[in-house]
């Protein structure tokens, strides 16, 4: 799996890291039982602060995609790959909107208006 972040991207680094994991789960590159790199090692390889990686991992844990075990690291537990795929698509949509200068509130309005048309 290719780990990379773009410091010029308006999306925070921790969200980029979490998005990489979500995408890999959605694409099937990562599956339940797979181990993620140790936060310290990933931080060093990406040249980011350790707390940035830990924040990404905590976010993924809160979403129910990984489990954090002291001494054993981060392990993928994603049981709902469809939701993971949807989350990945949503992350990509938000990132694209940011690149276009569209705020999250404006994006939400666009999505809700689209639902009203159905």
From TrEMBL:
Domain HTH gntR-type: 11-79
One Gene Ontology MF term: DNA binding
Matches recorded under InterPro entries: Tscrpt_reg_HTH_GntR (IPR000524), WH-like_DNA-bd_sf (IPR036388), WH_DNA-bd_sf (IPR036390)
Gene3D superfamilies listed in its UniProt record: Winged helix-like DNA-binding domain superfamily/Winged helix DNA-binding domain
Keywords, comma-separated and alphabetical: DNA-binding, Transcription, Transcription regulation
Name of the molecule in the record: HTH-type transcriptional repressor YtrA
Protein source organism: bioreactor metagenome
